[in-house]
Design a protein that fits this description.
The protein is mostly beta strands. The protein has one helix and 16 strands. The protein has two domains: 129 residues, Immunoglobulin-like (Sandwich), CATH 2.60.40; 127 residues, Immunoglobulin-like (Sandwich), CATH 2.60.40. The longest helix has 22 residues.
C-alpha cells in the first residue's frame, strides 16, 4: 500500500511515499520481541518474587506415636518458606475419607477442628528469616479425634500452609493412610468383604427393564446384634451422582441407591448370595450410552461407613 502526502500541482513532482507494509512488519516484530521479554520475566502461573510461598520437600509419619499418654500419629515435615520473615502462619492438616462420596471427617468436640467443622490440626510458624528451612516440623494428631465408629478406614490427610487470618499460601502435600478402630473392650475389628459381584443387564421385573446385581459370599465382622446394612450407590464414571425421586431407590442425599438390612446375629455373619434389581429409569438418564459405576459398602444404620468393599464400573445403553 502506498500513501501520498502533499498536494501535487500540475507539472510538479513532490511525492513522499510511505511503505506501510514495512512499517507494519517492523511494528509487529517489535511487539513480539517485547511480549517474549515480558513472558521470560513473568512466566504465566508463577509467583512474583515478593509473594509468600513454600516449597515442600518430604513428610514422614509415625503411626505409633504418643503424647501425654495419648495415642496418635506424629507428622514430620521438611519444607522451605519464602518472603515470610516475621509473618505468622499455620501449617494445617485436614483429614478426610479418600473417597469423595464420604467427604471430610467431622469434628464433634471442637478440639481438633476447622472453622467449617471438619477434623483438622494446626501448627503455628513464624519464620525469623527469608528463606527459612523447617527441617523437622512435628505435628501430633490423636486418633481419638477422628470421631469414627469402629471399623477399617481408608483416609487422606491434606497438608497446607495458610495465613493466620485465613487464605492459602501453598499446598504442601496429600498423604493416604489406613486407620483401624477396634470395638471397645474387644479385639474384633469391624470389616466386610465380598467374593464377587455379577451384573446382568436388560433384565425385566414387574414390567420394568433394569439390571440384576448378585453379590456372592458376603461376610460381615462386627459386634453381635450390630445394626448395619448393605449399601450400593450409583454414579457416573466421572463421580457425578445419579439422582432419583423414588424413595425406594434413594439415599438421604437423593442419590440413586439400593439398601439391604443385614441382621448381625453373630460376630461373623455370612450370606452366600444376595440378589437385587434396579430399574434403569431410576438412574435419571436420557437416551444414549453411559459409563457408570457402583460403590458397594456396608454401613451402620446411622449412615456411618463400616467398610467400603469395592467400586464396580459398568456401561448401560438406554
Amino acid at each position: 500500500m502506498n500513501i501520498f502526502f502533499g498536494r501535487i500541482p500540475c507539472g510538479q513532482i513532490n511525492i513522499k511515499k510511505i511503505h506501510m507494509k514495512k512499517i507494519f512488519s517492523i511494528t509487529v516484530f517489535n511487539l513480539f520481541i517485547t511480549l517474549c521479554s515480558l513472558a521470560v520475566d513473568h512466566p504465566v502461573g508463577t509467583i512474583s518474587a515478593n509473594e509468600a510461598k513454600a516449597v515442600f520437600e518430604k513428610m514422614t509419619v509415625d503411626y505409633k506415636a504418643s503424647e501425654g499418654g495419648v495415642n496418635g500419629m506424629m507428622l514430620h515435615l521438611k519444607f522451605t518458606v519464602y518472603e515470610m520473615k516475621d509473618t505468622e502462619a499455620f501449617v494445617a492438616v485436614y483429614f478426610m475419607h479418600n473417597d469423595y462420596h464420604r467427604g471430610a471427617l467431622k469434628d464433634t468436640n471442637q478440639k481438633y477442628g476447622s472453622s467449617a467443622g471438619d477434623v483438622a490440626v494446626y501448627k503455628t510458624i513464624k519464620p525469623a528469616f527469608s528463606p527459612a528451612l523447617f527441617e523437622d516440623l512435628q505435628i501430633f494428631m490423636p486418633y481419638a479425634e477422628f470421631d469414627l465408629f469402629p471399623g477399617d478406614y481408608d483416609l487422606t490427610m491434606d497438608v497446607k500452609l495458610i495465613r493466620s487470618k485465613g487464605g492459602l499460601i501453598s499446598d504442601l502435600t496429600k498423604h493416604d493412610f489406613n486407620f483401624t478402630k477396634p470395638l471397645s473392650n474387644s479385639s474384633i475389628i469391624p470389616t466386610a468383604s465380598v467374593d464377587s459381584i455379577v451384573v446382568d443387564h436388560n433384565m425385566t421385573e414387574n414390567n420394568k427393564t433394569g439390571m440384576r446385581i448378585t453379590l456372592k459370599k458376603l461376610s460381615v465382622t462386627a459386634a453381635k446384634n450390630t445394626e448395619c446394612s448393605l449399601a450400593i450407590y450409583f454414579e457416573k464414571k466421572d463421580r457425578t451422582k445419579l439422582k432419583t425421586a423414588n424413595s425406594q431407590y434413594q439415599a438421604q442425599s437423593g442419590q440413586t441407591a439400593i439398601f439391604q438390612s443385614l441382621s448381625q446375629l453373630y460376630e461373623i455373619s455370612w450370606w452366600d448370595k444376595l440378589v437385587f434389581f434396579i430399574p434403569y429409569e431410576e438412574f435419571g438418564l436420557g437416551k444414549g450410552k453411559f459409563d457408570l459405576r457402583m460403590d458397594v459398602d456396608v454401613i451402620y444404620n446411622s449412615g456411618i461407613l463400616l467398610k467400603h468393599m469395592r467400586f464396580l464400573e459398568f456401561q448401560v445403553e438406554l
